[in-house]
Amino acid sequence: MEQSGDKLVNCSCCKGNACYESEFTTEEGKIKTWLCMTCGFTTNSTMTEDSEALNKTLELTADLIKDLRQNYDGLAWFPTAITMPDKGMIFPEPVKGTSTLEGKQDWQWTVVKAIDIPEEEQEKYPDPRNPGTFYEKRMDMKNLKRFNKLSFMDAAEELGMFEKPTTPVYNIPKKIGKSGEFGTSSISGK
Ligand SMILES: [Zn+2]
Hints:
About 10% of the residues lie in helices and about 40% in strands. Residues about 170-190 have low confidence and may be disordered. It has helices at about 50-60, 65, 150-160; strands at about 1-10, 20-25, 30-35, 40-45, 70, 75-80, 80-85, 90-95, 105-115, 135-145, 170-175, 180-185. The strands form 3 sheets. Strands 1-2-3-4-6-5 form a 6-stranded antiparallel beta sheet, with no helix packed on it.
């Protein structure tokens, strides 16, 4: 896979001018991805109506994210959810006690940071994918930071996303909370 042509374009969702456009060459051809640094919405050129990519995303995605879907130029946009195991997570989360005009709960960005697990406690956190090994970091769910809908950039900065400018893994949480169960969807090709 080859990445080329990163640039900032105008966002279809919030009309801001900080939407990050990237182009990848995969076995199936060129894929373009967009991630807006203002509103945090993302899509890619495979997310067309009735496409396999869109159906898979809908299958793996939490209801809140599905509810926030927007459509522009034949592509479905969703708020992103990012997991960086060494740094933490960003995901959209409903805010208790709020209500939008449609009668739904309003939402904000939540940032959870990864923290070190003390060595003597690591045995409590076995890594299911690598039997016999243990996690060294865990998500600090007790210390959440919230950011406004149009402050995705601040949330990303809080997480330290820009310290290493590579393509993040796009994880879409199916269930947010204690269980730590996640559906994973990679948009970067095979
Ligand atoms: Zn935007």
